[in-house]
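pasting for the record
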Amino acid sequence: MSKRLIAVIGTGFAPTGGHIAPELIRLQAASDFQPQLFEPRYNAFPATQFDRALSMIGNVDAGIQAAQAGAIGIFINTFGDYGLDELRAAVRVPVVGAGEAAMAIAATLGRRFAIVTIWPKTMQFIFDDRIDQCGMRPHCSEVISILDDNELPEPGGAMVPIEQMRAGQSTIVNRIIESARGAIDRGADTILLGCTCMAPIAGELAQRLPVPVVEPMTAGYKFTETLVSLRISQSAIAFPSASAQRLGAFDALITGASIKVDTSDCPACIIAEE
């Protein structure tokens, strides 16, 4: 029996130019599933709200491409869930975002989770958006940023602190541990890692902390497998299907092809005029 294809949008770190899903996802994948990487054709580091919108375009385009390639589930491998709602309206297969899924899991393991993220406070808007949009404000005690603003890599620059963290470099890992312990002292009973790039150190954190540690890459991917296995997808009432004629707009935005301007009237306005 052929394995069921689940698309993984993005590596959680630097693009690879290939189709091999991150190792930690492959290790967690059930035997009847085949996770495959679908990297966005357009990438933008979401350092600002504007860049987040560009990331959304790349992710939605990648998800549409994945569905057309036969994926029966799509996992957006970033805590920011860029393009999650838009992609749910574009395809009928289940679409899961790492941030939303991980917060849902964390909220079932305890009463108050703290998000500990490698990213600096200038990117707080990403977490505020996901916490509020997912209704998790009562469950989230705080968001702790590990890096200072001046440690954020310049566009196109080497992501040295993140590379050190992923390699298990003790200085930055210890900074994360101490921040998590501080959150626990202030009332958090669960720690949620605020970036899928933090996946390589999740095991060590779980061993050194006295509370559950939720890692969004593997948690979100397994959540996707669960929805596929249960044959459950997003509600068509919550996410009405997009017009098939408009799905090509994302491809056109990325390739530079011309986009046919939609000049149709608003259906509600037409009814009102009558």
